[in-house]
Amino acid sequence: MSALWTAADAARATGGTARGDWAATGVSIDSRTLAPGDLFVALSAERDGHDFVAAALAKGAAAAMVARRPEGVAPDAPLLLVDDVQAALERLGHAARARLRGRVLAITGSVGKTTTKDMARVAFGEQMRVAAAVASYNNHWGVPLTLARTPPDTELAVVEIGMNAPGEIAPLSRMARPHVAIVTTVAPAHYAAFGSLEGIAREKASIYEGLAPGGTAILNADIATAGILRDAARAAGARIVTFGARGPADFAMVSVTQHDATTVIEARAGDHAMAFRLGGVGAAVALNALAVLAAAEPLGADADRAAMALAGWSPGGGRGRRERVVLDDTDADAALDLIDDAFNANPASVAAALDRLAAIPPGPGGRRVAVLGDMLELGPEAPGFHAELARLPSVEAIDCVHCAGSLVAHLHAALPPDRRGDLTDSADEMAARIGKLLRPGDIVLVKGSKSAHTARVADAIRDLGRRARRPA
């Protein structure tokens, strides 16, 4: 494998001092997942990365980027000494972008960033060499890390950009300098930091500030704040391309048909009709796919080929993947279906997940069951956001809603009594009793914010199947 960063290149990019003549084939911030040949970046977050430099070098790291030589590391160890590791990583990201010969697609939005990024990787991967962010690496260290990992001969780099507070997206977009930037949607996520949907929209729209000259802004025409996105795109001098399902759009949804494990989509791009299939289910993911196809032409790709490739996409863990959980190995019918959408949650994503659940028929004798955890970072209006979910039309088709958390208790109180399931103070309590709340034939959605630990309920449901396979 050719070198991604030589000692001289990395020193020049970061302004640091290289010790040793090393060459790195990758970049890592986690000694647990580091591959031999990686440059280990000793970031300080919850723990000081310098504490893991010795372990990283022992595991085969080519070198470590550090602000000091840590204890237990030999004086002649391969190092890149910098003034500040976070700042040096950002400089490495800038340098990687400067030498990149291909195009860049940047993606943000309140819902669907990672899904859209993963779709783009699949959609365009058959037409060009694609490098994309790993997992949800979309913050102040995730974006420069993604760029630093991108080989210079990459033809398309896909960068995911997120935010928790005002002023975070524009600097990351300027670092990525995308040729195309997508805003998937604007919804009440991180509402506490902005206080209004308009404030969130302005922050999301700031991704267009980083567009390369002649760049393309892709936006969701269906949302109430589309005008804010349009104004920001015009101010950036961008070409505007829209997608949507409810009105005029450059890429317009005609129909969405959901099956057990796939979604069939009909769409139009001007006079051009498109029909394609996704390896995942939901109207929301269908719109994400349309956003990806809207990016094809400005990225130099063929939209029809990209649409056909999307059949190979499927949702990642915790993002709506449907799984079969066999409860009794001696009885093929003793099973339930789990929809694990527990990676994160806000009002828009929960509504989309409930719509999906409502569209799926349960098995014989089963029910549609939702297990919901708290939606966090919604500020003083959080109780109202939770209670409003009870008024969604999809709730009428759901047999039972179990709630785990103090905020989602407001939803529990607002639900019709015949749909009101168990209420617990935490996801751990719900996980401990979930086996008594489900039965064969059920289709079960698990959804909640990551910090509410709702994923533990999904794990407990999987464990019902594992226990069934254990010998007595």
Keyword list:
472 residues, alpha/beta, Udp-n-acetylmuramoylalanyl-d-glutamate--2,6- Diaminopimelate Ligase, Chain: A, domain 1, UDP-N-acetylmuramoyl-L-alanine:D-glutamate ligase, Protein-Tyrosine Phosphatase, Chain A, 3 domains, six-stranded mixed β-sheet, 17 helices, nucleotide-binding, UDP-N-acetylmuramoylalanyl-D-glutamyl-2,6-diaminopimelate-D-alanyl-D-alanine ligase activity, UDP-N-AcMur_synth, UDP-N-acetylmuramoyl-tripeptide-D-alanyl-D-alanine ligase activity, cytoplasm
Note down, in words, how this protein is organized.
With 472 residues, the chain is an alpha/beta fold. The protein has 3 domains: 80 residues, Udp-n-acetylmuramoylalanyl-d-glutamate--2,6- Diaminopimelate Ligase, Chain: A, domain 1; 213 residues, UDP-N-acetylmuramoyl-L-alanine:D-glutamate ligase, CATH 3.40.1190.10; 149 residues, Mur ligase, C-terminal domain (Protein-Tyrosine Phosphatase, Chain A, Alpha-Beta Complex), CATH 3.90.190. The chain is built from 17 helices and 22 strands. The strands form 4 sheets. A 9-stranded mixed β-sheet has the order 9-10-8-11-12-13-14-15-16, with helices on both faces. A 6-stranded mixed β-sheet has the order 17-18-22-19-20-21, sandwiched between helices. β17 and β18 form a beta hairpin. α3 packs across α5, α4 packs across α10 and α4 packs across α12. The longest helix is centred in the first third of the chain and has 15 residues. The radius of gyration is 23 Å and the shape is globular. The termini are far apart. The model has no long low-confidence stretch (mean pLDDT 94). Pfam families: Mur_ligase, Mur_ligase_C, Mur_ligase_M. It is found in: Cytoplasm. One of its GO terms (molecular function) is UDP-N-acetylmuramoylalanyl-D-glutamyl-2,6-diaminopimelate-D-alanyl-D-alanine ligase activity. It catalyses: D-alanyl-D-alanine + UDP-N-acetyl-alpha-D-muramoyl-L-alanyl-gamma-D-glutamyl-meso-2,6-diaminopimelate + ATP = UDP-N-acetyl-alpha-D-muramoyl-L-alanyl-gamma-D-glutamyl-meso-2,6-diaminopimeloyl-D-alanyl-D-alanine + ADP + phosphate + H(+). This is UDP-N-acetylmuramoyl-tripeptide--D-alanyl-D-alanine ligase.
